[in-house]
Each structure stands twice: as C-alpha cells, then as structure tokens.
Design goal:
two-stranded parallel sheet, alpha+beta, 9-stranded mixed beta sheet, single chain, 11 strands
Length: 224
C-alpha cells in the first residue's frame, strides 16, 4: 500500500501519470497482476541513489565514523523503484526513450493508491523527483532531518524533462542480490487508458485489445 512519508509532499490524487513500456512489460503486468520495481543501483545512470559532494560533507559531519562509500554500496541494494511520468499529455521524447514499438499506460496518483491499497504487507512511498545541480546542490534538504530516502528521489538536472514520480520500496529485510521485485496491484484500478505507439500496425493494436479484454479500458493509437 502507498504510505505517505512526512518528509515528502503529497502527490495529489488527480495528478495524471504515464508509464511508457515495451509490449512484454505490459503483458507481464496483465498476466501476473504485478508491477516491477527495479533495484536502483542497477539502472544505466550510475548516479542513481548516490550523494552529491555537499551531501557527503553533511554525512561526514553527522556520522564521521561511517565509511560513506561502503555504506552507500550496501544501502542502495535495499532500494527498488517503479517510475512514472507526470504530464497532462503524452510526450514524444518519452515514446522514443522508453516506449518505442510499445505502449503507454495512463493513470492518476489516486488510481495507483487504490490499485495498491489491498496489499498491506508492502510499504510503498510515492514521491515526486527533485532535479538538482550535483555540483552546487544537495539532495538533502536544508533544515530537514537527514534522511537516506532523499537520494533515490533526487536526480541530476539533465533529466528534468522527465518530470518523474517514483514509487519507492525499501527492503528492510536481509540484503539480497535480487535486481528486481514484483509487487501486486489491482490492474483494473491501475489502468485508465492504454495507447499504442504512433506507427503501430493494425495487428499490434488488435493484439493489445485482445490481451486487455475484460479490463474495460480505452485502447487508442497514439496521436503523437
């Protein structure tokens, strides 16, 4: 279930969110009723979940006896994320980057909360990503208590166009080598609409309609 963290602003229920994905990922969602969370240190951007220079300075001051790098190498293995794009409309750049020859799911923050409400075992945070200059800014907010969750919810300013909202799961049990975990959702609550890639042939569109039969959601060809 989605649990609000006191350090982060609430993402309003009406916030429109998109997730661009290959067809295989959509089929996995539909057939397993789960969404995939990927371990943050296994993303292509190796700056994910790390500290800026300023953050390391702060950390060294409040915990001088802790080896920062060793701590980060272990702690990041507890963090798994599932990413959404905050925007009132589709984005051509996101099709090219994440959804080429695939689909996009349209939902809202409120729908995600409802879709995950029945899973009482998993604690999920929903956080809007902050974008910073890693040379001059810190992920840790000034005047706030130090919290490791600032690092997986902050990205470099070069990615600002993504306007990302993240679902964050922290594995508080024993650290494992699992690069991903699947968390159950109510697919009917989650998906408001599915759009297929702009140049999709009819057979692709028809297959998506067949796979989503019974969901009662709109299946459209993207107009981007």
């Amino acid at each position: 279930m989605i649990v609000q963290h006191k350090f982060f602003p609430i993402v309003p229920d009406e916030t429109i969110l998109w997730q661009y994905m290959p067809l295989a990922k959509l089929l996995h969602l539909l057939r397993t009723g789960t969404i995939h969370f990927h371990r943050i240190d296994d993303f292509s951007d190796k700056k994910e979940g790390t500290m800026t220079v300023l953050d390391k300075t702060v950390f060294s001051y409040i915990a001088p006896k802790i080896d920062i790098e060793a701590y980060l190498q272990q702690d990041v293995k507890r963090l798994y994320i599932n990413c959404w794009i905050k925007c009132p409309h589709e984005l051509a750049l996101m099709w090219e980057t994440y959804g080429k020859d695939g689909v996009v799911i349209r939902t809202t923050a409120g729908n995600i909360r409802q879709a995950m409400a029945n899973d009482k075992e998993q604690c999920i945070r929903m956080v809007e990503v902050r974008y910073i200059d890693e040379e001059t800014e810190a992920a840790q907010l000034s005047g706030k208590p130090f919290n490791m969750l600032y690092f997986p919810t902050t990205k470099r300013k070069y990615f600002k166009q993504e306007c990302e909202v993240r679902l964050l799961y922290e594995n508080t049990d024993k650290i494992t080598e699992n690069k991903g975990i699947n968390i159950r959702v109510d697919v009917k609550e989650l998906i408001q609409e599915i759009r297929v890639y702009p140049s999709a042939p009819k057979y692709f569109y028809d297959m998506v309609k067949l796979e989503t039969k019974g969901l009662d959601v709109s299946i459209e060809l993207s107009s981007v």
